[in-house]
Amino acid sequence: IMAALTKDAVLAELSKLTPPGDSETIVALGMVSDIFIKDGSVTFSISVPAARASEMEPLRMAAQRAVEGLEGAEKVMVVLTAERAGGANPAPAKTPEAPARPSAKAGVPGIKHIIAVASGKGGVGKSTTAVNIALALSSLGQKVGLLDADVYGPSLPRMMGLKDDKPTSEGRLIHPLSGSGVKVMSIGFLVEEETPMVWRGPMVISALTQMLREVLWGELDVLVVDMPPGTGDAQLTMSQQVPLSGAVIVSTPQDIALIDARKGLNMFNKVEVPILGIVENMSYFLCPSCGERSDIFGHGGAREEADRLGVPFLGEVPLHMDIRTHSDAGTPIVVSEPDGAHARIYEDIAAAILERLLADENSRKAPEIVFE
Question: Is the pTM of this model over 0.85?
Answer without folding.
Answer: no
